[in-house]
Amino acid sequence: MLELTVAVLIMLVGSAVCSGTETALLSVPLLKARQLAQATRHPNAAALLAIREQINRPIATIVILNNLFNIVGSIVIGSIAAAVFGDALLGVFSAALTFAVILVAEILPKTLGERYAESIALWVAMPVRTLTWAMTPVVWLLEQIMAPFVRGYERPITNETEIKLLASIGYQEGIIEADEAEMIRRVFRLNDVKAADIMTPRVALTYLRCDRTLADAQDIILNSQHSRILVTEADIDRVLGMVLKDELLSALIRGEQDTIASQWLRPVRFAAETERADQLLQTFQSSREHLAVVVDEYGGISGVVTLEDVLEILTGEIVDETDRNVDLQALARQRRKRLLQSRGFGDVSH
């Protein structure tokens, strides 16, 4: 009877440890494992990260051990139980053992493994790596057998939808603030918005001909609400560059009214209407410029887009002192109309 009791305990405990370990390792996301490894610098955390990055072999090792406990244990226990109980009680004992395996070796350890996944995973990481290394030949053979069925498939760690959902859950759980969650969601809009959706259209631009003197253009300069003014040859479709309004005002104050606009010319960057907002942001950062001229497919000037226009995708409308006299609602409706039309919604009147 003692021999039977020991055999049952060995099988149940061994199977339970394997089941709980498997569940705990699979319940720790790869991103969480990377965070633990970077934050703690502990060997167990490093081992856990190595397991999660190459999860197939550790899981195969655990499954092999689990089945050895269950199958070999059942054979050994069955032979001992037949001698102890005889044919009359063997069926009752088998039913009780099956119930114990389901409850003690499967349901309970897997529940605990999921609930305390991080702690258990860190505790078993080193032993699992050692066992995986020891059983490499067997696991390698199984990998070769399974290779034709699993080759070429690699699931991404996460995706855009999951990150947005995590931001919403984080806000609902009180982990992050509402504005932080909204900012995360807005970031993903950058690659969906084109330059044509956020630009200031050509009809609202201020520009000067390159041969005009500051005296002739004084009214245009003073009345312009833009800090950067385009400089053209004959018309707006032939942009040469831009000038800074502050420099022109300083020149007027110094009495340099007879100088022409081209003397203050600065180079300007051009962007296609279809260029994405995230690409524009990278361009503005790398070039240290705040403005780009938007051109259509025929090379004509459609408008200009600024760093502020791109940032407004993340922050919402930015209004400064120069925007007080601007009908922001009309501009917003105009931008929304262009955006919807670009998404294939046709003519939108509201």
From TrEMBL:
<feature type="domain" description="CBS">
    <location>
        <begin position="264"/>
        <end position="321"/>
    </location>
</feature>
<keyword id="KW-0129">CBS domain</keyword>
<feature type="transmembrane region" description="Helical">
    <location>
        <begin position="120"/>
        <end position="142"/>
    </location>
</feature>
<keyword id="KW-0812">Transmembrane</keyword>
<dbReference type="InterPro" id="IPR002550">
    <property type="entry name" value="CNNM"/>
</dbReference>
<keyword id="KW-1133">Transmembrane helix</keyword>
<dbReference type="Pfam" id="PF01595">
    <property type="entry name" value="CNNM"/>
</dbReference>
<keyword id="KW-0677">Repeat</keyword>
<dbReference type="InterPro" id="IPR000644">
    <property type="entry name" value="CBS_dom"/>
</dbReference>
<dbReference type="Pfam" id="PF00571">
    <property type="entry name" value="CBS"/>
</dbReference>
<dbReference type="InterPro" id="IPR044751">
    <property type="entry name" value="Ion_transp-like_CBS"/>
</dbReference>
<dbReference type="InterPro" id="IPR046342">
    <property type="entry name" value="CBS_dom_sf"/>
</dbReference>
<feature type="transmembrane region" description="Helical">
    <location>
        <begin position="59"/>
        <end position="82"/>
    </location>
</feature>
<protein>
    <submittedName>
        <fullName>Magnesium and cobalt efflux CorC domain protein</fullName>
    </submittedName>
</protein>
<feature type="domain" description="CBS">
    <location>
        <begin position="199"/>
        <end position="259"/>
    </location>
</feature>
<feature type="domain" description="CNNM transmembrane">
    <location>
        <begin position="1"/>
        <end position="180"/>
    </location>
</feature>
<feature type="transmembrane region" description="Helical">
    <location>
        <begin position="88"/>
        <end position="108"/>
    </location>
</feature>
<keyword id="KW-0472">Membrane</keyword>
<dbReference type="GO" id="GO:0005886">
    <property type="term" value="C:plasma membrane"/>
</dbReference>
<feature type="transmembrane region" description="Helical">
    <location>
        <begin position="6"/>
        <end position="31"/>
    </location>
</feature>
